[in-house]
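for the writeup, i need someone to sanity check this before i put it in the appendix. the sequnce is what the collaborator sent (i think, or maybe the updated version? ugh). structure was predicted straight from it, no edits. if anything looks off just tell me and ill rerun, i have time this weekend
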Amino acid sequence: MRRPVLWLLTVIVVILSGWALRATATVMVPVVLSLFLALLVYPVDRLASERLPSWLGWLGHALALCVVLLVLLGFAGCLWLAAGQLIDRFEGADYRELLPSIDVFEEGEADTEGGSMFREVYSQATESLASAMLESIPGFAQNVLNMAGTTLAGLILVLFLTLMMLIEAPRWRAKLETAASKRASRDLENSIVVIADRLRRYLLTRVVVGLLTAALYVGWLWIFDLDLLLVWGLLAFLLNFIPTFGSMIAGVLVVAYAFAQKDPGTAFLIGTGIFAIEQVMGNFVDPRLQGRQVSVSPLVILVVLVLWSWIWGVVGALLAVPIVVAVVILFSHIHALRPVALFLSNECTMEDLDRMTLADGEKK
């Protein structure tokens, strides 16, 4: 009787925690994002501090913040550039200017009744698709540009929190050693080291895979003379940071635009090529670059993507995998929660889990 009650209480706590995180998104998103950023750039801060005199230690914090700022501005710049390209292309345009295939169908004579019906249905479908694009894409792109003020305010808060975390890191380590047992403090410190290392490798892998995917997208679409190549390349790169769903969204957008601009056969060929690109990158290139460093169950990744997208929106989708990786590593260092870490991971034995989650000094 005690075990069912325990499981029921666990489910209730998880549900309430999800609602609490969603309700406090304004506060929690900058804090969690700053924490991950501080972990990512801490080696830069530590390396600079070790090589400089103590009275110049602040230069390490400044250098680390510059790295964070460059990364965030790089992502913001990609979004800004893609949004500007979409606005220039669609704003004030007539859908017939975007769909040369409609004019061909209207000028040509129908050889058969079936061919005439197909042309009519295709023309109506492309007109509807183009009208939807003209109504939604410029508005969406303009919303991205209008978010600049809010994004700037949030960026300042994230940078300030990251700076404070870097400054306070040595003090919190000393506090932890004083407040907790020697083993507990050592386990927590090792967990943080492993989390930071896995996150850096994960981010580096996503950057490399994103750049390769974007280059393949642009090369393949260039063959079919599809315009907005820069936009599709940027979208392929940025959406690559959202596992599974990001590549699906990028591919669907390209195929829909190709269907509107070209013909069904060309759109099918473009979609086939994009599907092949995603399969090669997802099943061969990505695993070989990433190795076993971020070994999380694919089913768990899908579930946490949906969950964190509901809790924190797009930012939640971006942070979903880093969060679950951190949870797996932390739980693997807590004896009572090691079975949970095993089920969340993509491993089958505790030995394999330890190889993924233990620091080099902990492995025997």
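The chain is about 85% helix and 0% strand. Residues 297 and 344 are 6 Å apart (CA to CA).
thx in advance!!
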